[in-house]
Structures are given as structure tokens and as C-alpha cells.
Amino acid sequence: MWPAGRSLRTPAVSEFKETTARPRQFRPTGLPSPALSPRCPGPERSAAAQVQYQRFTMLKAIFLTMLTLALVKSQDTEETITYTQCTDGYEWDPVRQQCKDIDECDIVPDACKGGMKCVNHYGGYLCLPKTAQIIVNNEQPQQETPAAETVGAAANAVATSSAAGGVAASGMASSGVVPGTGYVASAAAVAGPEVQTGRNNFVIRRNPADPQRIPSNPSHRIQCATGYEQSEHNICQDIDECTAGTHNCRADQVCINLRGSFACQCPPGYQKRGEQCVDIDECTMPPYCHQRCVNTPGSFYCQCSPGFQLAANNYTCVDINECDASNQCAQQCYNILGSFFCQCNQGYELSSDRLNCEDIDECRTSSYLCQYQCVNEPGKFSCMCPQGYQVVRSRTCQDINECETTNECREDEMCWNYHGGFRCYPRNPCQDPYVLTSENRCVCPVSNAVCRELPQSIVYKYMSIRSDRSVPSDIFQIQATTIYANTINTFQIKSGNENGEFYLRQTSPVSAMLVLVKSLSGPREYIVDLEMLTVSSIGTFRTSSVLRLTIIVGPFAF
């Protein structure tokens, strides 16, 4: 036997049990009980006692009448109150003023378990296998009887078949409508092997292995409710007006099929305004999008500002790391929120597109980077020095002392280094009649008559100065090595100052300072003879000495 929901009951209004209240015996106060009253023979009862008994009988009748009216009134009131109360499985219909069946299959969530299907029934519901079919019984005798008698006969037939092993049923509503199935039963159910007859005069046949064995009578027509139609198995099934095209929804509406009917709704993203469906502008509502919202017909989508991209939720915008995704910078890339910027290595600068880097020509930006010459290189620069110099501290040029590194002078020559080069001078610079007495000192012998008109001694000195030296500038000091008493020393430039580049200033009785008064440009060599004249204060003798100064002006100012 298939499981059932609630026990099937015949629809009925809640009944009240009409009972006749038994009135209590009224006994007026002060009157003796009739059972206790002395039984007096009729002829001997006094007139007063008869009057008293009649009065008691009258009061008793009045009391019973009033009690009966009160009971009737209370029953009427109770019937009025309880008339709207229906039994289980039914609810009161205020419009039709009667109880109507509750479709538990619609209101009870998951009413049937184990893959069973729910079939609504009067006052309850049935849980049937999904392969069970509901068919009409045509085996009852077709008699030309009124519909009510036919229904009653069908109910009796169902009750009879139930005794043989079917599903017990308690009757069928006079309307013959199977709630929730959309049809009106017009005949009794078929009873036979493998057939179980349920209430409401329909038969359930369970034969999932061979659906074609389900008895059907194509010539038999059943009356279906509005929105339903008869199927090939003689059951009422819902008409899908949306698929059949029999709905009257507008072109801008969506047809939704319902049980026995249909509904017209606006598509998602639209709302009904009057008789038309208009687009909902989601972008005017509370922000759906993190940054920018773009409304489209029936929908919307989110956009992000440049430098951002939509996250997986299509709502949030997350920063794009341009330095990882598509590094456009030529050298250095720095990501920032919503953007990025490029930087260049030292020695480069950003081009106009702010992405590429161009070499900075440092040599053109300043003429003071290098002491001699600036050489531009990709991303950097270097300094060069002229021949005879070397670079120190990356920018400064320092003279190379070739006399210490690459002395190319002969043995009878001495090497003299100057700014930017060197020169070889004879170790014995003395010329006849002078003889070498010490290093760089030549003396003319007194015994030689020629020496009387010549300076007594000549001392050879060498010096180097830079080109374009600032003037005036003290460059060399001359001083007497031998001091005689009662003598006067005077100093003068004897030769080598034809253009007036020098000036000799006496600083003491025995010394003088050679001053450069004109700027010299090299490379050039100047030989200047500085003479010290010594005269006796009493005029007894006169002598002179010469310092032959070789001045080498370097080619550069360093």
C-alpha cells in the first residue's frame, strides 16, 4: 500500500453534538420536598395544600420554559461561531461561504520523500511513485441515472473494491473535481488486478515496467479545468501557454507558465511602468561598481579607471602593476596606485614620451667638469689630459715627471721637468773662459785678462711656470751668497726682458724678487739674466755676478 499524507477525510463543517439538557428539578425555598410531603388522601387534602401545589406546578413550568429558551439561544450562538471552523485539510472560503480543500502539495515543502510525487486529495494528499498513473474507471455499469446517483454508485463501488485489498476511501465530493489535477471525474474507477482504487473515484495503477499497459479509452472524454487539457492517458495536464504561443504577453515581456495559467513579467533589468517594460538604470542606484558604472539595456557593467582592472567579482577595481604586466620603461619602472612612472639611470634623462631614456651630454652642460677635455660616453663622461699630463681624481690633470719615469737625456745632460714635458740641458753649461766650479756655477778666473770685463760668476737656474699665470706674480728670488763689508749691492735684469714681461724688485740689500708683470702663454722658453752688482762704498773695487734663469712656460694653465 502506498504511503499517504494525512488520513483522508470527507470535507465537513465542524459538528456540534445536539444534546437536550436535562433541567434540574426546581424546588422553591421553604417548600417541602414532594417525596417527603405527607401523602394525604385526595379527599382529605386541604384547600390550602392544593393551592400551594398548583402554584408550585406553575412555577416549575415557567422555569422549564425559560431554561429551554436559554439552551436554544446558546446553541444558535455556538453554531454561528463554529460554522467557519473547518476540519483538517480544509480552510474557510469567505467568498463562497464554505470550506475548501487545502492543496498541501503547493504549501508543504518537500511533502513526499524518497522520490515520490505528491498528489493533492480532498482533506489531504497522497505520495505516489513517479511512474503511477491516474486513470478513469469505466467498468461500472453505465446507467442512465442522475449525476448524483452515478457519483454515489461510484463511491459505493470504490468502497466495495477497497474491501478486496485496495486503498480505503471514505467517499468523494459531490462535485467530482480532483483538487490539483485540473479535471472533473465523470465515471467510476476501474477495479482489477494491480489496480488500487483511491478516494474521489480515481484509480492508481502501478506498472512502471510497461507504461503501455495503462488502460486508456481514447474515446472517453474528461472535462478539464481552464488551463488544462486531456492527455493521451486521459488525465488533465497543464497547458504551457508560453510554449504554445497562446499567451497575450507583450513583445517586451517574458511569459512565465503557471499551473493552469501564465503570467507576463518584465525581463531581468526592466521594470513595469504602466503597460510597458522600461530599463532599470542600475547606475543611478546605490553604487554597484567600485569606480565607474555603464548602464546597458536590461543590465549594466563596471569599468575601471586607467591603471586599474576589474577583479574576479566584476565589481572591485584593483591596481595594475604596469611594471610587472607590461613594463614600458626603458630603464627603471616604479608602480604607483593607478599608474606608474619611469626613471633613468645616472647619466640619462627621460625623453619627451616619459618612457625612454636619452643620454645626457654632460660635456655640453658645463665647461668646468674637466680640467682639460671632457669626453661624453653613454650614461657618463670622462676627462682626458694632454700629453705630459695624467688624470687624477677623475677630473684634474697632473704633470707627469718624465725625468723620473722616462728619462731620455744623455749622460752628459741633465733632465729638467716642466709642466707638460721635460728638457735636457748640458751638465756643464760653462762656456769659455768660464770654468765649472760646482753644479751649475761657472767662474771666470781672475788670472785671465778677459775676465776683467766679464761677470765674475754665472749661476744657471731653471724654473717652470704655467701658461696664463695671473699677474703681477712673484716668481723668483735672487740673493747674494757672499756679503762684503762696506759694499752696496744693486740688482737688475741684464737681458731677456725685451718685451717687459718681468720686473726685478729689490727686497733687501742682499736680495731681490723677480716679478711677472705680463701673462705668458706657452709653450715657450725665456732666458733672463739677473745681475747683482757689488760696489765698495769707498770705491776701491767693483764686481758683478749673473744668475741665468731659464723660464719654461707650460702649454696649459695647469
In short:
13% of the residues lie in helices and 34% in strands. The chain has 558 residues and is mainly beta.
Topology:
Blueprint: H1 47-82, E1 90-93, E2 98-101, H2 104-107, E3 116-121, E4 124-129, E5 133-135, H3 147-163, E6 177-178, E7 183-184, E8 195-197, E9 203-205, E10 223-224, E11 228-230, E12 236-238, H4 241-244, E13 254-258, E14 261-265, E15 270-273, E16 276-279, E17 292-296, E18 299-303, E19 308-310, E20 317-319, H5 322-325, E21 332-336, E22 339-343, E23 348-350, E24 357-359, H6 362-365, E25 373-377, E26 380-384, E27 389-392, E28 396-399, H7 402-405, E29 413-418, E30 421-426, E31 435-438, E32 441-443, E33 457-465, E34 473-479, E35 487-495, E36 502-508, E37 511-516, E38 524-536, E39 542-553
Can you tell me about this structure?
The protein is 13% helix and 34% strand. By secondary structure, the chain is mostly beta strands.
Keywords:
13% helix, disordered N terminus, three-stranded antiparallel sheet, EGF-containing fibulin-like extracellular matrix protein 1, 558 residues, mainly beta, six-stranded mixed sheet
Which sheet architecture does the biggest sheet show? 6 strands, mixed
- Assign an overall shape: rod-shaped
State which percent range the strand residues make up. 25-35%
**How would you name the oligomeric state of the polypeptide chains in this document?**
single chain
- The number of strands is 39
For the biggest β-sheet, the strand order reads 31-32-33-39-38-35
Structural class: mainly beta
Give the averaged pLDDT, no decimals: 77
Query: Termini distance?
Result: 123 Å
Keywords: Calcium, Disulfide bond, EGF-like domain, Extracellular matrix, Glycoprotein, Growth factor, Repeat, Secreted, Signal
Protein name: EGF-containing fibulin-like extracellular matrix protein 1
Main location: secreted
GO cellular component, one term: extracellular matrix
